[in-house]
Amino acid sequence: MTDSLAELLGGRRGAVDATVPPLAFAAVWLLSDAIGWAIAAALVAAAVVAGIRVSRGGKVTAVAGSMTAVVVGALVVLYTGRAEDFFLIQLLSNIGSALAWAVSVLIRWPLLGVVVGLLLGQRFRWRRDPALVRAYGRASWVWVLLQYTLRTAVFGALWWLGDVAALAMARVALSWPLVALVIAVSAAVLRKSLPDDHPGLRHPRVPEAAEN
């Protein structure tokens, strides 16, 4: 299950690629103190990464999403004139993700279950298994607290301080290394939350009445 989630998230390469434009932006801004040049560097870096990923068979939707995030960040900076606002999209997206994942658990539609169910080709069959719903709910809290809330706290504090260099470093540190940790911890929580006799994620235990 861990490998499946990692693949779904784009893997190590996708996460590393996503850090290149922010690093290019921060490096050029720190060296030149020119927002225009920093934005140009980020856009060029994003275009190069996108070209490489597409040439290697990467998903066009994923590439387009990454490019869109960089373009939006650039537009925000052009509007505000504040270099730290290039990272504002990251802060807002993590706030939104934390809220969405938390609400999904509260309404018994944990997003980790939705993601894994679609990945395994089960669609929403897992929702008819109370043990899986409970396990996915507990594991989803790992994503809320260990990933999205942590990122929100770190990005929020650094953005408030206007520390562009630290924001770029945090963008790297809180990408794949954190995602790998979250996947491992949530997988462990899933396994521990299921009864010993449960057949596993690939085999939801659906009551006979629900099957008919």
TrEMBL record:
Indicate yes or no for the key word Membrane: yes
Query: Is Transmembrane one of the keywords?
Result: yes
Pfam families linked to this entry: DUF3159
Tell me where on the tree of life, at the top rank, the source sits: Bacteria
Q: Which UniProt keywords apply?
A: Membrane, Transmembrane, Transmembrane helix
Record-annotated membrane-spanning stretches: 23-48, 60-79, 99-120, 141-162, 168-190
InterPro entries under this entry?
Answer: UCP010219
Please give the name of this protein.
DUF3159 domain-containing protein
